[in-house]
From TrEMBL:
Protein name: Periplasmic nitrate reductase, electron transfer subunit
Chief place where the protein resides: periplasm
Superkingdom classification of source: Bacteria
Signal peptide extent: 1-29
Assembly information from the UniProt record: Component of the periplasmic nitrate reductase NapAB complex composed of NapA and NapB.
Record GO terms (molecular function): metal ion binding
Compartmental location: Periplasm
Keyword NADP set for record: no
Length: 171
């Protein structure tokens, strides 16, 4: 009796992989067509086989001309006009502050971070740069000469003002 149960259990165990395989090969896509075979060599479906080396596309040049950029509105974080590659910002080091911190601008001749960078969220001005302004590149970004991927209808405030129709009855 026990040996029969044992044999039955063995047969079942042996059948599990076959059952699984059966399930896999029967994959059907949502549109009802049979799905791709899940066994055999993996073949890239794109125009470029994954084994082919493609030359890397040219990267865009960084703008590092040290020229201040116009801010699109008064409280826009100014764009960075110099290289920032490998400038480390972490718990121990903030490369940006080695030039832009209050005490370091005489040596670097960099513009000092403005007073807002010393304020905490309650508007209290602290003695050092506030933690919420510590990760500079969260707000300040360098630029490249890349062409914009999508169009942009942004208009400067002054341009909007000069073309706005005079309001009826406005004094
Ligand atoms: C070696 C010194 C140095 C370091 C390090 C440095 N900067 Fe500068 N930064 C300058 C100087 C000098 C200028 C003035 C323009 C110029 O010469 O490029 C400047 C300009 C800027 C400006 C433009 C300010 C404006 O009014 O338009 C921003 C923003 C800026 N830096 C952010 C950063 C950030 C963010 C980092 C770190 C990722 C950084 N800088 C690291 C020296 C430095
Ligand atoms: C949360 C966004 C934010 C972070 C983080 C931040 N800034 Fe700014 N930064 C601004 C904004 C907005 C301005 C412009 C208005 C102002 O001064 O608050 C500015 C202005 C500046 C200016 C121009 C100051 C002036 O008076 O012309 C410099 C330089 C600068 N930031 C450097 C830094 C550096 C260096 C760090 C990192 C230690 C940093 N910022 C972190 C948002 C940020």
């Amino acid at each position: 009796m026990t040996s029969r149960i044992l044999i039955a259990a063995l047969v079942l165990t042996a059948a599990i992989p076959a059952l699984l395989m059966g399930g896999v090969s029967g994959v059907v896509a949502a549109d009802g067509k049979p799905g791709p075979a899940l066994s055999g060599p993996v073949v890239s479906s794109g125009p470029h086989p994954i084994t082919l080396d493609r030359p890397a596309e040219a990267t865009n040049r960084e703008i590092v001309d040290d020229v201040k950029r116009v801010r699109n509105y008064a409280d826009q974080p100014p764009l960075i006009p110099h290289a920032v590659r490998d400038y480390q910002i972490d718990l121990n080091v903030n490369k940006c502050l080695t030039c832009h911190d209050r005490r370091n601008v005489e040596g670097s001749q960099a513009p000092m971070v403005s007073v807002t960078h010393f304020q905490d969220r309650d508007g209290q001005t602290l003695g050092t740069v506030s933690p919420r302004r510590y990760f500079c590149t969260q707000c300040h970004v360098p630029q490249t000469d890349a062409k914009p991927i999508v169009g942009n209808r942004f208009r400067d405030f002054d341009a909007v003002l000069s073309t706005a129709p005079a309001k009826e009855g406005a004094k």
